[in-house]
Amino acid sequence: MFPIRDTIPSNTVPVVNNLIIAVNVLVFLMQLSYGEASSQFLFHFGLIPARLTVEQYSVHFTLSQKAFWLISYMFLHGGFMHILGNMWMLYIFGDNVEDRLGHFRYLVFYLACGVLAAMVHIVSDPYSKLPTVGASGAIAGVMGAYFLLHPRAKVLTLIPIIIIPLFFEIPAFFFLGVWFFMQFVNAAGSASEGVAWWAHVGGFIFGMLLVPLFSTVPQIGADRAVRSVTQRKRSPRLQVLHPESAPSSADLHGVLYITPSESFLGAKKLVNIPWGYEKRLFTVVVPPGMNPGAKLRLKGLGKARADGTRGDLYLEIALNRRSQERQ
After folding, report:
1. Cβ partners under 8 Å of residue 58, min gap 6
2. Whether 108 contacts 223, CB under 8 Å
3. What is the per-residue pLDDT across 63-118, written as a single tens digit (0 to 9) for each?
4. What crossing angle do the helices spanning 80-101 and 197-216 adopt, rounded to 10°?
5. Which residues are CB-contacts of 125 (< 8 A; sequence separation ≥ 6)?
6. How does pLDDT run across 246-285, given as a tens digit for each residue?
7. What is the enclosing helix (H) or strand (E) of 155?
8. Range of the domain at 150
9. Are residues 166 and 312 in the same domain?
10. Region for 251 from its dihedrals, namely left if φ exceeds 0, alpha if ψ lies in -120 to 50, beta otherwise
């Protein structure tokens, strides 16, 4: 299963998430610049459990060096596919977690998950002399947080059947649950030597444990100031809707999300409505002055009646500002 996108729009620009991705890419380019010596780069800055647990090695390093490795390892990657996979997962799930926690709390949360995932790896393989690198543990924490915060979200997922690529919208709790189960199975069975499976498992669990705690910590004033700047002025242009109807009615009812500025100025949106195996795409014009709770009527876009006519599609206007008032 390969995720393409999720269906939860974020209310703010994920500046911290984007910054983390940028730093990972820059560090990876730095690794590549070392050429054949890149393995030494990973050995120097990666996390090697034996350097922390075996006394004959650990005595040669300071406490600050050991603490630094718990952070530095999560910004290193072993190859192009490694960093591509990690950054794509972070891109999909990180923005919504940052949107809920706030920018500064999200940064601390991300780093804390990475450190705790590293500790789980050290406990699971304390005498390893191989450098552990990758943001997977921290990203697993983000995915664990998403699992709790948005379980009913949908994840558009590519599932290749032999050579045919098929796309399905899978509930987030199912997608992430399957992902966690696979990590646990691989960790318990040591399916692939050299992969820190227990770090993935530990990161996911600690992400679930930490996100309720971080959600209760008050935001600092600087975070409020940054959020006021990063607040999105527009909602996503393309929105996927799943309208519902009463059994005896041909009319469909859905929700269209816009921002306060779009409510005042008006907007034009592309609405994608899954219709069996077919995707129906419409252009919807939201006129200026549409207040939350108002409804747009799209004539003839509902279900077919027995007499050949069609019902209507009603879109209720709602403001896309779920986290604006959260602390």
Report:
1. 51, 52, 66
2. no
3. 999 999 999 999 999 999 999 999 999 999 999 999 999 999 999 999 999 999 99
4. 20
5. 49, 196, 198
6. 888 989 998 888 888 888 888 888 887 766 545 567 888 9
7. strand 154-161
8. 2-229
9. no
10. beta
Cβ neighbours of residue 308 under 8 Å, at least 6 residues apart?
none
Residue 264 and residue 286 in contact, taking contact as beta carbons nearer than 8 Å: no
**62 and 203 housed in the same domain:** yes
Q: Are residues 196 and 123 in the same domain?
A: yes
- Rounded CA-CA distance 66/10 in Å is 36
**pLDDT: which is higher, 120 or 257:** 120
pLDDT at 146 over 60: yes
According to DSSP, the residues that pair with 286 across neighbouring strands are: 267
In the sheet with 2-6, reading across from the earlier edge strand, the strands are 2-6, 154-161, 164-171
- Sheet (strand 295-298) strand order: 252-258, 313-319, 295-298
Tokens of 233: 């002025």
Who has greater pLDDT, 310 or 114?
114
- Domain CATH for 95: 1.20.1540.10
Segment holding 270, helix H or strand E: strand 267-275
Mind giving me the DSSP string for 198-219? HHHHHHHHHHHHHHHHHHHSPP
DSSP class of residue 12 equals B
- What's the pLDDT at 324? 34
Cβ atoms of 133 and 38 within 8 Å: the answer is: no
161 plus 275 within the same structural domain: no
Q: Which residue has the tokens 């999560």?
A: 74
Q: For the chain, what's the residue count?
A: 327
Short-list 148, 28, 38, 134, CA closest to 89: 134
CB atoms within 10 A of CB 133: 23
Residue 266 lies in a domain: yes
Q: What tokens does 86 get?
A: 């990690």
Please give the Cα distance from 144 to 83 (Å, whole number): 20
pTM of the prediction? 0.77
Q: Which of the listed residues 171, 197, 229 is the one where a domain comes to its end?
A: 229
Residue 326 lies in a domain: no
264 & 237 share domain: yes
To the nearest whole number, what is the mean pLDDT of the chain? 87
